[in-house]
Amino acid sequence: MNIRIPYVFVAIACVPNAIYAYRNPYAVFSMASENRSLPCIPFSDLASITYANRPSLQAYIEDIHQSAELEKKELALAFPQISFSGLAAKTDFQALLELPYPARQVSFGVNQLLWSFAGPLQQYRIQRTTTNVNEQAERFHRLAIRQESEQTFLDALLNVRYQGYVDALDSASRSIFAEAINQNNIGFLSDPQWKQAESDFAVAQKTVFRYQDDLRRSFSFLERALSIPLLIEARNEIPRLLVDHGLLKFEIAPLENYLEYAIHLRPDLAGKAWEVDRAEKISSFLMHKYAPVINFSFNVVRFNFDTRADGIIKQLTFQLAITASWNFDSFSSAHEASAAEAETVSAKMEQLDLSLAIQRDVKAAYYDLQALLKEVDAEKVTYVAAEALYITQKHQFEVGQISEVEFTVAETDWKNAQYTLDQKSITAEKKYRELLFNCGYPPELESIKSPWSHT
User: Fold this and answer.
1) pLDDT tens for each residue of 110-148
2) Contact 276, 51 (CB under 8 A)
3) How many domains does the chain have?
4) CA–CA separation, 17 vs 37, rounded Å?
5) Which residue range(s) make up the domain with 253?
6) How many CB atoms neighbour CB 333 within 10 A?
7) What is the pLDDT of residues 319-354, one digit of tens each?
8) What single DSSP character describes residue 402?
9) Spatial strand order in the sheet of 293-307
């Protein structure tokens, strides 16, 4: 028997009043008043939709922009610094002789840093590592957003798939309870049997009402993850937002492959490596602050001075100099460099700790996924048996061999087996998406056919 298990999902248009739209500057699906429905949302597009609607992601982008501008600032300090100044004033000598013209001075200078072990270029390299850290933080935030949107989407799908079983359970419990009422009215049931029938019906209705709350909660989580309004207003207007067209197929690769992907693709681990590099550069910068600084300077000065005897004296002076300077700060920079060295060691330990944690998470997700796939295979056998029984009972009901209640119970068991198989399949897909997140979402692992799916 051919079993079709759903694996890629699309959110389709909702019925009117099932969702609402509001003015959101970050929303990519703003809906006009005459069109209150969402366009189709492919599962593969969840991340890009969420990226456009998350202000937190924009904050990371602004941090990158800020650090990039500071890079340019530090780099600009390595280029020639140009100065221009002018002065017009009377000296005491001119005021005493009542000379009509004041002294005037115009100067133009160019100053260029030739070399410094702790100069603008070194500060630029430090700032560059800060930009790299911010870029990796932004990339990891994108992965976290993607995982959140995928997990909440699959949770919502699982609740939607549960609706078939709940509907069958509701119908079966009502039929059984109606028959129990009739039997009780004619005296066929004892008092304990009647109480048991009432209790069974109450438990079934509790499951139905709990499902409605769970469905609303799952859609509220999905709304938060996607930043798109998907609120449900009434039970009868719950739309089947999610329609399956086959999940992303996959096959299990050796564990070593996933570990290698994680080490090379996880942005947070790359960010820790840049933090170590930044700490090392800061320590080196502080230790080299005691080295001499060499500057080249060129100045042109024009000077006018009015005297009674000689008239106006005009002077034009050129100055060309190479200077070396050395600054001593009582070893304060040495102590600061020692603190930076300790920060370097701390950053290396954090990098190692994160690497071990990532490897642990990859192994846990890998082994959990293998166990879930075995459960999926077991549930397939149960589903085949339940479906065969349902088909037999349906035929017997059609020819009048069994009652409607017996047929309804068989149908409920079949729906339950179908939901259980869907639950295990979607849970396995969630675990696989978790494994991909732990590995940094390797593109080559996202389009491989699954050996446990039937198409």
Assistant:
1) 776 666 666 778 888 899 999 999 999 999 999 998 888
2) no
3) 1
4) 9
5) 9-78+119-291+326-445
6) 19
7) 777 777 777 666 677 778 788 888 899 999 999 999
8) S
9) 81-89, 103-115, 293-307, 311-325
